[in-house]
Amino acid sequence: MRPCVKGMCKFESLKNGKIDLADIALMNDALDVIADNEYLIQQERERQSKK
To answer: What is the reported pTM?
Structure first.
């Protein structure tokens, strides 16, 4: 559901088969990378603020 919640696709596209599992996996991988990058950025900001 993450791709739908994040606006990458519509739920109807999941239900009617316009989007397949490979598409969903690719979108989830992209969302994971974004989340990882945001986490790393936040960690670096916290590290920088402690200097």
So the answer is: 0.85
So what's the pLDDT on residue 51?
77
Mean pLDDT, residues 27-47: 98
Give the H or E element holding residue 36. Answer: helix 21-49
Distance CA 3, CA 20 (A): 12
Helix (H/G/I), strand (E/B), else coil: 7: coil
In the block, residue with structure tokens 């994971």: 32
User: Do 33 and 5 touch, CB atoms closer than 8 A?
Assistant: no
End-to-end CA distance of the chain: 40
